[in-house]
């Protein structure tokens, strides 16, 4: 069984300012297992940052229990907490680099004065301060890991946003953490750079066995690298699970909305409604959205609809993406046939784990 590395137990965070009180995190339970890339998605103000800051106690919870790598964080002494925090790296939206230092010096910064294990001639183990040479080697290796070896002597202001975030990642990895918390680390970056930073995080997860908690307001980022996702709203986790499961069967409207942002389905529906095939639709023909994950795609859906049920499918929009190696498909189609044939076809789709959303019917509802 996978090993839990982070466990939050009924964690609450209340802020009280003047005469206002904010329940930023509301009784949250969360388990992150070793090797997970766990996405926490939600709109601004949902409480994501506050929640993840309780993991390393940058934010102390008002109540609840925080266990990280087997340690009850709230019971640690100040010195032990400092040690424990070194096992939890963090990267941020605005990189938080020191502009007066070279990027090598930025990465070296958390290494200064750290203790390393050594052994004397008799093999006796002792702790000593890390040497300058050891720091230089480590910084070189880290910059290599993030693809920035050549820029060691540059200053942060000379780098692009993506390069700055790579420095942020190298610095976060300097203490060889087992966990990396990414707080909106790609939110200030363009889509292409975002993709390359996410790909770097995914490769660090694979190569170093790094467990990653990724906070974001973009489901697209979650979709690209996470194996699990939790959706946060108003301080609570309203839905959570394996990525594929959540994409296949989202229960909450907010989760559905976040998923829809990754396929721009609203724009597609608006565009499709303008097409003659939809404008001139007559009952019982229907415009529907078909959504499926994985296995359903192995069946020749459209062919089966016609051959077995005498229903034709006019595909007006299609989007098939690969999530965790599994196809996730969304089609907007006009299904035509007799009322009976359509009813049977809908049954067949349901049996095949294809979710059907009746869009034309919704349009009539909207028009009321
Ligand atoms: N130090 C603080 N004092 C008072 N209120 C706070 C504090 N930090 C956060 N809050 C409030 O707690 C709520 C959750 O904020 P939080 O930053 O955790 O949300 P978020 O989902 O991370 O949003 P964002 O992406 O905008 O940071 C908000 O209402 C915020 O105003």
How are the SSEs ordered, and which strands pair?
Blueprint: E1 4-17, E2 20-33, E3 37-41, H1 48-53, E4 63-68, E5 71-72, H2 78-85, E6 88-92, H3 103-108, E7 115-119, E8 125-129, H4 132-145, H5 161-172, E9 179-183, H6 191-208, E10 211-216, H7 219-225, E11 228-233, E12 236-242, H8 243-248, H9 253-261, H10 265-273, H11 276-279, E13 286-293, H12 301-309, E14 312-323, E15 326-336, H13 339-351, E16 355-358, H14 359-367
Parallel strand pairs: 3-10, 3-11, 6-9, 9-10
Antiparallel strand pairs: 1-2, 1-4, 4-5, 7-8, 11-12, 13-15, 13-16, 14-15
Bound molecules: adenosine-5'-triphosphate.
Description:
By secondary structure, the protein is of the alpha/beta class. It has two domains: 4-250, P-loop containing nucleotide triphosphate hydrolases (Rossmann fold); 265-367, ACT domain (Alpha-Beta Plaits). The protein has helices at 48-53, 78-85, 103-108, 132-145, 161-172, 191-208, 219-225, 243-248, 253-261, 265-273, 276-279, 301-309, 339-351, 359-367; strands at 4-17, 20-33, 37-41, 63-68, 71-72, 88-92, 115-119, 125-129, 179-183, 211-216, 228-233, 236-242, 286-293, 312-323, 326-336, 355-358. Helix 4 (132-145) crosses helix 5 (161-172), helix 5 (161-172) packs parallel to helix 6 and helix 12 (301-309) packs across helix 13 (339-351). 36% of the residues are buried. It binds adenosine-5'-triphosphate.
